[in-house]
Specification:
heterodimer; A: 441 residues; mainly alpha; 72% helix; B: 445 residues; OB fold (Dihydrolipoamide Acetyltransferase, E2P); 5 domains; 7 helices; 29 strands
């Protein structure tokens, strides 16, 4: 390898990080939507005559920065995606307690440690990971089924306190649980329809999940903010965070393991992985949970690409790995080194971008009318969905928003919305086809 | 004092903030997290240095590659022994492959999808005889293959081409060159025929040029350009034998045969190389000569196909017939064949003298002409037409290689325009409308 090539690689990582950071600030815009367009452009232009490795590094820069920077719209604009949805509640509490920046620092710290886990520990344990993968591969549908069972059963038990009479107690107890299951069923059905039939224009088929995900997680949160009297107080920018080193270590380990689990298992996203591991590690308190969610998210998104380049494994998981595999096949140890160097570089830069962007927003956001902010964010989401998926996408988004509001109104878990991905993939891996029964084929 | 988390005023002795419940005493400084980030500042350059200094994968002899190496990243180097082939579908060329040998074994090199575009763009399509250094994923199947996923790992080392003339090649005996010798040759494309493996063009009516389909499919060789003038063409030599010598025949030279006829009487002999000096189609004999020693050869199936001046290889029985020693070609394994050196083209050529179609000028051999005339006669051949054209009180013989090169419906008395090349035909000349070139015959009215 010549030095100028190495410098070009660094340049493309920086370019990807810059593009990814800018676009990730837009609420609702998932990095995979953007990468889809980049790949489309790349293929249309015949590879742009560039070395594919440079394109790979640019996309990795975008992915890493997204994993870090999407914390900003999730917390300050209340527009989460499927993985930041879990941090919405604690981070909004932080925001209301004037500690929005502290929440961002906690998540970013987890993310930073997540990058370390990927770049330092994953290569060390690569042989072990290979063995685990071979075992998991044969049992994938059972594992996803177990994840679904965990999500459904975690709704029990509920503490509803005292009631007027036993019948009222029974009704109140089951109302929340049934609302959760209704959400799961509806989201699962929406997922089966989305995965089985391309409703949006064929040219945008790779964006077909955009509308359901934005509807279930982002727009429903914004509508909730609009109907509740939601206000953002003046934010404090602390010099220290309310956490002990033990909380950070505990959260990071749990999050990294959860993220790695999600990176391994199809349909399991960072949020679910982190959430399950936080249960497994008996995590308590928002601080540790926020750190774990930051770590889980980064390990899930970025770990998938590291596993793809990992010698002996080359695991193709996640949309970016699949997208890259359309024009590039990882082969050499040298490529793995380059990818890890790129991940670490993009990680450091993204970390500081998140911190400074959060400082800026912590000062700016309270000056903005929250209602105006929410309407603007909702407008941005609607425009994005319309541009990328046409009016059909808007229709799907509306249905998804309605489903996303069910758990909010009945105080059940919003994680049931993840059935939109879990159910169709689980059915697919189990060899069950529902599409003909629903008249979709 | 102020709560370090929410910034609200709280009592000085508070341990927990009454507003946000944050612990005021036991906290982690944000700057100490920045120090944590320093670890990544070390990790990133470390990996960059590792990438920069990581040594290349060592070359493996092809014979040492086994099923244990399946899907491993390997490095092999060898000489191309079979010309590139492509898999062409409705989606265009989706696979390019060629075979290399390092002396210990053979391996197919395969390139797919967008990498094919890069191979073309970076002029990395090899020809037979080129040395190829390749790194890629090994696949162990019915035959060994290496898949090149990144053209960066494909290096084609072009050999040097020895310049030869058409005449030199035409007169060269089978032992004059080795198969695979890299040559460059100057000449005109005088005919083009299409086959499943590609095209066979004729250079100056005498040397066959094999153009692998891969080159035309990937548009690295354009027949229109190639046929537009005198071209310098690069390729590798291959001895074409329509018949392979069989066992049970004694290879001898004519001199030895004629000097010791009794010793070889009744022997099945194999003459490697002799020139036809005369022929008699009625008595089905040709007279061949080698180093001024002549002998008569009788062929049961006739000698119409052969021309005086051709070089032939003979297998037959040496006998005495009517008091004269001769070779009889009558049995199953007997033959008279014309071994010829042909050129397997490399994707390199240049036009050293571009020609234009000229009307009404001197029609010299291999010039491009434009001729108007009336169809005096025409015959439909297997794939084309043989047309006799009347113009300016004389007739011209026009051979159209493919019917697709005729624009309009050809018939007696029709006025046509011919764009073609003057080529040799038997002892005379004809205008040839070559397939795949700019040549055509147009029926005007």
């Amino acid at each position: 390898m010549i030095l100028s090539y190495l410098l070009m690689c660094i340049l493309f990582v920086l370019l990807g990080t810059a593009i990814g950071s800018l676009l990730s600030m837009l609420p609702g815009l998932h990095v995979y939507n953007v990468i889809g367009f980049f790949l489309l452009f790349y293929f249309t232009m015949g590879g742009l005559g560039m070395d594919p490795m440079l394109m790979v590094l640019m996309l990795i820069g975008m992915l890493v920065s997204y994993a870090f920077v999407f914390t900003i719209p999730s917390i300050y604009f209340s527009a989460p995606d499927d993985s930041t949805m879990f941090v919405l509640m604690p981070s909004q509490r932080y925001l209301k307690e004037r500690k929005g920046h502290e929440a961002v620092v906690l998540i970013a710290t987890g993310a930073l440690i997540g990058v370390m886990a990927i770049t330092i520990f994953v290569p060390i344990f690569m042989n072990v990971l290979g063995v685990i993968w071979n075992i998991a591969l044969a049992n994938m549908h059972w594992i996803i089924g177990a994840v679904i069972a965990f999500m459904l059963l975690s709704e029990f038990p509920k503490d509803f306190g005292r009631h007027k009479n036993p019948l009222h107690g029974l009704k109140e107890g089951w109302k929340t649980i049934l609302a959760g299951y209704l959400t799961f069923f509806l989201a699962g059905l929406l997922g089966v329809i989305t995965f089985s039939k391309t409703l949006i224009p064929a040219g945008h088929a790779f964006q077909s999940l955009m509308a359901p995900l934005i509807g279930l997680f982002a727009t429903s949160s914004i509508i909730l903010n609009l109907i509740s009297k939601y206000e953002i107080p003046e934010q404090n920018i602390p010099k220290s965070i309310d956490a002990k080193p033990k909380d950070i270590v505990h959260g990071s380990v749990a999050g990294s393991i959860g993220g790695l689990f999600a990176a391994f298992i199809p349909a399991v996203t960072a949020g679910v992985g982190g959430y399950m591991s936080s249960h497994a590690f008996a995590q308590q308190g928002d601080k540790s949970f926020l750190v774990s969610m930051g770590a889980s998210r980064v390990v899930y998104y970025v770990g998938a690409i590291a596993l793809f380049f990992l010698p002996t494994l080359h695991l193709r998981r996640g949309a970016l790995a699949m997208g890259i595999n359309l024009f590039f096949t990882p082969e050499t140890v040298q490529q793995f080194y380059l990818v890890d160097a790129g991940i670490a570089l993009a990680g450091i830069i993204s970390f500081f971008i998140v911190i400074y962007a959060s400082k800026f927003l912590a000062k700016t956001i309270p000056k903005v009318n929250p209602k105006t902010l929410n309407i603007v964010v909702l407008g941005v989401l609607i425009v994005l969905v319309y541009i990328m998926t046409s009016w059909v996408g808007l229709l799907i988004m509306s249905v998804a928003t309605a489903i996303g509001l069910v758990p909010v109104l009945f105080n059940s878990r919003r994680s049931h919305c993840l059935a939109v991905i879990l159910v169709p993939i689980w059915l697919n891996m189990s060899g069950i086809t529902l599409a003909p029964l629903l008249g979709l084929w | 004092m102020k709560c370090p988390s929410c910034g609200l005023e709280i009592p000085d002795d508070s341990e927990i903030c009454p507003y946000c419940t944050a612990n005021v005493k036991k906290r982690v400084r944000i700057k100490s997290i920045y120090v944590l980030a320093l670890i990544l500042i070390i990790v990133s350059p470390t990996y960059a240095i590792l990438a920069y200094t990581s040594s290349d994968v060592q070359i493996t002899p092809i014979k040492d590659l086994t099923i244990d190496d399946n899907y491993n990243f390997i490095h092999v180097r060898g000489t191309v022994i079979k010309y590139p082939t492509v898999y062409d579908s409705n989606y265009g060329v989706t696979q390019l492959g060629f075979v290399i040998s390092d002396g210990t074994g053979e391996i197919s090199v395969k390139i797919y999808r967008d990498q094919i575009e890069r191979v073309v763009k970076e002029h990395k399509i090899p020809g037979i005889g080129d040395v190829v250094d390749v790194e890629g994923t090994f696949s162990y199947g019915s035959r060994k293959s290496v898949i090149v996923n990144n053209v960066e790992f494909l290096h084609v080392i072009k050999g040097s081409f020895e310049h030869i003339s058409v005449k030199m090649l035409n007169d060269a005996p089978p032992w004059a060159f080795k198969d695979g010798t890299l040559v460059s040759i100057e000449g005109n494309i005088t005919g083009v025929r299409e086959y499943s493996f590609g095209m066979i063009s004729t250079i100056d009516d005498s040397v066959d040029l094999v153009i692998p389909y891969a080159y035309t499919a990937l548009d690295v060789v354009n027949i229109k350009t190639l046929g537009s003038g005198v071209a310098e063409i690069c390729g590798s030599l291959k001895l074409y034998r329509s018949k392979q010598p069989t066992s049970g025949y004694l290879t001898v030279n004519l001199e030895d045969l004629i000097e010791n006829p009794e010793r070889y009487n009744g022997t099945n002999v194999h003459i490697l190389w002799a020139r036809i000096i005369s022929k008699n189609e009625i008595s089905r004999v040709i007279k061949v000569s080698e180093n001024n020693t002549n002998i008569t050869v009788y062929s049961k199936s006739g000698v119409n196909y052969y021309n005086v001046g051709d070089n032939v290889e003979i297998q037959g029985k040496f006998v005495r017939y009517n008091g004269t020693w001769e070779i009889k070609v009558t049995k199953k394994n007997d033959f008279i064949a014309e071994p010829k050196w042909e050129i397997i083209m490399h994707p390199q050529f240049s036009i050293i003298h571009k020609k234009d179609y000229r009307e009404g000028e001197n029609m010299s051999l291999y010039s491009l002409v434009k001729l108007r005339g009336i169809v005096a006669d025409y015959r439909v051949m297997n794939s084309g037409y043989l047309v006799t054209l009347w113009n300016d009180n004389r007739t011209y013989s026009v051979y159209v290689e493919s019917q697709k090169n005729v624009h309009g419906h050809i018939d007696y008395g029709k006025s046509v325009v011919v764009m073609g090349m003057i080529t040799k035909y038997k002892s005379g000349e004809e205008i040839k409308v070559r397939d795949f070139t700019e040549d055509y015959l147009e029926v005007v009215f």
